[in-house]
Hints:
Blueprint: H1 2-21, H2 24-43, E1 52-58, H3 63-73, E2 78-84, H4 87-95, E3 101-105, H5 109-114, E4 122-125, H6 130-158, H7 163-170, H8 187-217, H9 221-227, H10 232-261, H11 270-294, H12 298-315, H13 327-333, H14 337-350, H15 355-371, H16 376-385
Parallel strand pairs: 1-2, 1-3
Antiparallel strand pairs: 3-4
Helix pairs in contact: 1-10, 2-8, 2-10, 6-7, 8-10, 8-11, 8-12, 8-14, 10-11, 11-12, 11-14, 11-15, 11-16, 14-15
Amino acid sequence: MKYVFINIWRVLKRELHMMFARPLYMFASVGVMLLSTFFFLTLMRGGSAEKMPVAVVDLDQTTISRRLIHEMQATPSVDIQLITNSYPEAREAMQQGKVYGIFVIPSDFYCKLVDFKRPKMDFYVTNAYTVGGNTAYKQMLTMVNLTSGAFQREVLRKKGLPDDVIMHRIQPLTIEGHMVANPWGNYSVYLVSTILPGILGLICMMLTIFAIGFELKARTSHAWLRAAGGNYTVAMIGKLIPYTVIYLVLGIGCYVILFRFAGFPVYGSHARLLFGLMLFIFAMEALGITMIGLLPTLRDALSIGALYSMLGFSLSGFTYPQMAMLPPFKALSYMEPLRHYYLIYVNEALMAAPIENSLPYMLALTGFMLASLCVAPRLHRALVYMNYPLK
Length: 391
């Protein structure tokens, strides 16, 4: 055992020297994670997308249309960039990407309101930008509904009806929405809490592939194995220790920022959620070993690893629900570690579920770690014989 620890230390010192000799390692891990955290936390600091640019085509040019525009501008989700009486001008602004939606007020808007003839409102949104288009459409639709209700209320008031009767006529059914675990409707709670660990997992996999694959490309794997006394396991442990420490520090730091300083809710166990995050990091490292073991060529392993990791953002279910996916993609989603971490996050942070709900997903993440053992003989042969192409 004494010689094992000595060899691990030799490999560790060699790897630390390589890390500090190439700034790429620190930038690709610490730098990328810090930039991603700052970007996503400031992008949705209000909980949802805000101030989506829209254009208004006011063909009515009356006090009621100007009041409608003023009230729309006062909402936090819409920023009116253009007010015009020319639809081609607004359409050109949309085609240039300056606005996400066009709100058209017809020329007979006021007259039809007075005559109770239901004026027709037209919305045009671009779904080339899904979030922007949907947010702009939702806000414009809300404003039209509120305007309709306000006009009906004023008419009924002039007829002498009391306010309680008026509200029953305008809104006969009252809806009470109770949002479980996220009463603020904060999209960051669902998105950022999974996107940032997903980016960390992507970093884990890609750097693991690069750290091992570079030994093959540079033909230095023999020196690596000699430092480990010819022991494959010792060589792998010594090489991965510094990276694992960095990943764990980044993961814990991200956890503290999200759930301590940003105030994201955790209704369940902090310990189990943090343990699930650690398992996710180990699983992504193991998948990096698996990728370079199956494809012991740096270029190929990086390409397949990047594709595999990016698919995890789509298949994990935090943006598009898994239950709505086609059966083949449902099955494929369970091959992504991010899917299992996301379910652990939902159970522990949002639902405060018992450990029995999260345990299967923790075991699944452990299974990803064990999968790397299957490629160990192949990767060991690649390190010894170096018989794979350099590019």
